[in-house]
Design a protein that fits this description.
Blueprint lengths: L2 H9 L4 H6 L7 H15 L4 H5 L1 E4 L2 E4 L9 H14 L6 E5 L5 H9 L4 E6 L2 H13 L5 E4 L13 E6 L32 H9 L4 E10 L5 H11 L2 E8 L5 E8 L4
Parallel strand pairs: 3-4, 3-6, 4-5, 6-7
Antiparallel strand pairs: 1-2, 7-9, 8-9
Helix pairs in contact: 5-6, 8-9
């Protein structure tokens, strides 16, 4: 469906076909006001996903609020990559850093039935959205409020896979981006002066939380492959085993294995 169809079908609580079959229908005052308000918000630049308070990711519906980043199609590649890695192990223990809406963690829990998933975020409000999405999809996930690895609870376990779609936008470039991005939480976008702050932090601490031979899987921004690879190489604790491109041929996901001797 296009944006207009999504907006009208959501506000009127009907499917796409009904929009056209019932096009002679008169709207109630409440429906007219709701549509007018939604259109006004969209014209002002607010993302449709926030207006509708939901989006689709991996074929699943996720509730949203401006407290969480809107899931992108590119991040589905990250999830698919983790699924491939996790299915090679039994009862995979997975840690999702910076879970936001919970789209990664919930999708993994839905598609890998025997996995044990922990998901963290620094934002309490984001965790509330993520927990609601987990409940909506009837999956069990251990949610923790944590700035990456800082929660003491994380030190009790080692994981087979750590996955993250970290912030990766250069601070000075955020305000040059399209207006819609200004509605999204800054904490989920800002990655410091060179856009690499979170890669350094995650790669530095991940070995302490990974089983030997475990995997660290992360999404990357446009043009960041070489810089992220260099951070891995400097750590001397990982072997890069795969780079996965997105639908536009952009290097989007990096997979590294913790060295067994590290």
């Amino acid at each position: 469906m296009n944006e207009a169809e999504l907006l009208f079908s959501s506000v009127l609580n009907c499917n796409r076909m009904s929009l056209y079959l019932d096009r002679q229908r008169l709207l109630t005052n409440d429906e007219s006001e709701a549509i007018a308000l939604a259109l006004k918000r969209r014209i002002a630049g607010e993302p449709l996903e926030y207006i509708l308070a939901s989006t689709e990711f991996m074929g699943l519906e996720f509730k949203l609020s401006p407290d969480v980043l809107i899931p992108r199609p590119e991040t589905e590649i990250l999830v698919e990559t983790v699924i491939r890695q996790a299915r090679a192990a039994d009862n995979a223990k997975i840690l999702d850093l910076g879970t936001g809406s919970g789209c990664i963690a919930v999708s993994l829990a839905k598609f890998i039935s025997d996995s044990k998933i922990t998901a963290t975020d620094i934002s309490v409000k984001a965790l509330e959205i993520a927990a609601a999405n987990a409940g909506f999809h009837n999956v069990k996930i251990n949610f923790l409020c944590s700035d990456l690895f800082t929660s003491l609870s994380l030190s009790q376990y080692k994981y087979d896979i750590i996955v993250s779609n970290p912030p990766y936008i250069v601070t000075e470039e955020i305000w040059q981006l399209q207006p819609e991005l200004q509605y999204e939480p800054l904490v989920a976008l800002d990655a410091g002066p060179d856009g690499l702050e979170f890669y350094r932090r995650i790669i530095d601490k991940a070995p302490d939380h990974l089983e030997k031979g475990g995997f660290l899987v992360m999404e990357m921004g446009f043009g960041q492959r070489k810089a992220v690879e260099n951070i891995f190489k400097k750590s001397k604790k990982f072997e890069i085993i795969e780079i996965v491109a997105d639908y536009n041929g952009i290097d989007r996901v990096i997979v590294a294995r913790r060295q067994t001797g590290g």
